[in-house]
UniProtKB/TrEMBL annotation:
GO terms for biological process: cardiac muscle contraction; skeletal muscle contraction. One of its GO terms (molecular function) is actin binding. Troponin I is the inhibitory subunit of troponin, the thin filament regulatory complex which confers calcium-sensitivity to striated muscle actomyosin ATPase activity. Pfam families: Troponin. The keyword Nucleotide-binding does not apply. GO terms for cellular component: troponin complex. This is Troponin I, fast skeletal muscle. Residues 79-106 form a coiled coil. InterPro entries: Troponin (IPR001978), Troponin_I (IPR050875), Troponin_sf (IPR038077). The gene is tnni2.S. The keyword Cytoplasm does not apply. It comes from the Eukaryota.
Length: 182
């Protein structure tokens, strides 16, 4: 019973025969469809394009060409108008879609990961191999010896200002001030 279920009920020769019949029917349908399309095209052209009769004299031919150019200009104007209408409507559609998108508020900011990166690494990532600037600014500084000036010496000699204030505070300090002045 298991083998009978797995086997198809139609034999392989019958299948191939049915496929060939289906292909023949499809081929006939395609040929008929192509013939219908060609007949429609002929009918449309005969309806919209009358047979061309060219005038024999030069002046009549020039007049005919002027009429053709006038018709071409009218068609170009219509084409330009329709193109501008289409552009305007597409712009309006884009604006409306943007407004709709904004009103929905579905734009979510992605959660950004914090990355610890030195300034050198950032510049190297941004500039690539062009990066030659060293961001360690202290390495580029020059050593300068500081010369002692007279004012600085005087300030050092005076000492801490807090001590002077404490010495002069209270009655003892005032007594010393008067004694030093006299």
């Amino acid at each position: 019973m298991g083998e009978d279920d797995k086997k198809s009920k139609i034999s392989n020769t019958r299948k191939t025969h049915l496929k060939s019949l289906m292909l023949q029917v499809a081929k006939v349908a395609l040929e008929k469809e192509e013939a219908d399309i060609a007949a429609e095209k002929e009918a449309y052209l005969s309806e919209h394009c009358p047979p061309l009769s060219l005038p024999s004299s030069l002046s009549d031919l020039q007049e005919f060409c002027k009429k053709l150019h006038a018709k071409i200009d009218v068609v170009d104007e219509e084409r330009y108008d329709t193109e501008s209408k289409v552009q305007k409507s597409t712009k309006e559609l884009e604006d409306l879609n943007q407004k709709m998108f904004d009103l929905r508020g579905k734009f979510k900011r992605p959660a950004l990961k914090r990355v610890r990166m030195s300034a050198d690494a950032m510049l190297r990532a941004l500039l690539g191999s062009k990066h030659k600037v060293n961001m360690e600014l202290r390495a580029n500084l020059k050593q300068v010896k500081k010369e002692d000036t007279d004012k600085e010496k005087d300030l050092r000699d005076v000492g801490d200002w807090r001590k002077n204030i404490e010495e002069k505070s209270g009655m003892e300090g005032r007594k010393k001030m008067f004694q030093s002045e006299a």
